[in-house]
Amino acid sequence: MLDDLVSSESFLRGSAHRLRAEVPAYRSVSDESITACVERILRFAAPVLIRGSEPPSGEIVGADHATLEKLLQGADFHDVMAGFRSVITGIQHWIADRAPAHGVAVGTVLELSQLLWGLSDSFSNQATETYRRYVTLGQPKLEQQRRRRWVTGLLAGSLPVHDIWLGCAEFHIDHDALVHVICVAAVPQYALEGIATRLIDDCTANAGASESVTMLVPGAGGLIGFTTSPPGSSRMPVAVGPPRPLSSLNSSYVIARDILAAVGSTAGVHSLESVSWRVAVPAQYALNAFLDRRYLVPLREHGAFGELIIEALQAWLNHDRNAARAAASIPVHRNTLRYRLSRFEELTECSLDETETIIELTWYLPPHRPFEANNRRRRSLLDESATALTA
User: Fold this and answer.
1) If you compute the radius of gyration of the chain from its CA atoms, what whole number of angstroms results?
2) Contacts by 19-27 with C-beta closer than 8 Å and gap 24+?
């Protein structure tokens, strides 16, 4: 009967199905990995059943290796133990179902069942000791892995409710809190920790007397996470999504990503309120290409002077089409600004008195140009961003 168990393909398939049903963490694991896990436990259990006695201490060391391997792969300890118990329970059911056909007495079935429970206890004790040592020696890395999986799962909307509650308990977060998703793009690997620490400090400071909770992890080429109190300012682009409960963070994450795409390299803390309709601009590829051909291609043909015209347009639009304030912001003489605007009309054959032209320029220019559009100021913005990353 035990020989049949060790070679049973149906047992392997049944165990894989049961593991995925009982332990959510195994649902994303490949068939090959689950089969290897079940086979390993079978190889561990079969000699105990055949011998009819508890395993010697040398065999229990296998629990050390199995547990440590799973932990190094980023598995949760509770999932490791739940998987082992699931397979052991499956072995018990398999023996109980087939014992009559093999003429195995009820007393023997009970003895085998007790051996399996004893084996499970021995494995649990050894695995727990391994886990304790691993946590003591490698807690920071282990916690980082769990934190990253939990945060990315929240933002993706893929975590079961049970796992959300477990994460809240582990990381001391109020399950009913409303939080804002935070996205920071293009953060070099070496600067991740420093920027995350600075942002968390800014969020805490902006909370004032209120309690602040912020979690940031590497993701999407930069930093992603959430906070109960967004930062008030930033020297690099930071997108903040609208407040949502932890169970609905995916919608806030989608909006934050769109905000980040809309603001480009513009430093500061950006939200739906500050970006407004511009959040929709990056996704309109065909329209943006059309507006580029209509307004910017004719200006690029004039090189540096075309850049000055774009700068004048941007300043004029940013200051509600007030020539005096726009000229002072560059700074140039008011007549110089007006000359550049008139050259824009000549080169593009579009009138700045027409509402459609104003709407189209307002739509297209901000997402594709920094607020100061000449080369010198663009370089200055990039230098400031680089300083913020490395400071």
Assistant:
1) 31
2) 19/83, 19/86, 19/87, 22/82, 22/86, 23/79, 23/82, 23/83, 23/86, 24/160, 24/162, 24/163, 25/75, 25/76, 25/79, 26/79, 26/83
Tokens of 82: 């739940």
Three-state secondary structure call for residue 270: strand
Q: Is 222 exposed, middle or buried (0-12, 13-18, 19+ CB in 10 A)?
A: buried
Residue 134 confidence (pLDDT) above 60: no
pLDDT digits (tens, 9 = 90+) for 106-117: 999 999 998 888
**Two structure tokens written together for 355:** 């509402």
Q: How many helices (H) and strands (E) does the chain have?
A: 17, 6
In terms of residues, how long is the chain? 391
Q: 343-367 b/e with 16+ CB inside 10 Å = b?
A: bbeebbebebeeeebeebbebbbbb
Lowest mean pLDDT among 69-78, 209-218, 261-270: 69-78
Residue type, 15: S
Task: Give burial (CB, 10 Å; 0-12/13-18/19+) of 315.
Answer: buried
Amino acid at 202: D
Is 29:22 a contact under the CB 8 Å cutoff? Answer: no
pLDDT band at 259 (very low <50, low <70, confident <90, very high): very high
pLDDT band at 135 (very low <50, low <70, confident <90, very high): low
In sequence order, which residues have a C-beta less than 8 Å from that of residue 142 and are 6 or more positions away? 71, 134, 135
DSSP label of 293: I
Tokens of 36: 């290897």
Cα distance between residue 370 and residue 313, in whole Å: 12
**pTM passes above 0.70:** no
Q: Which amino acid is at 255?
A: I
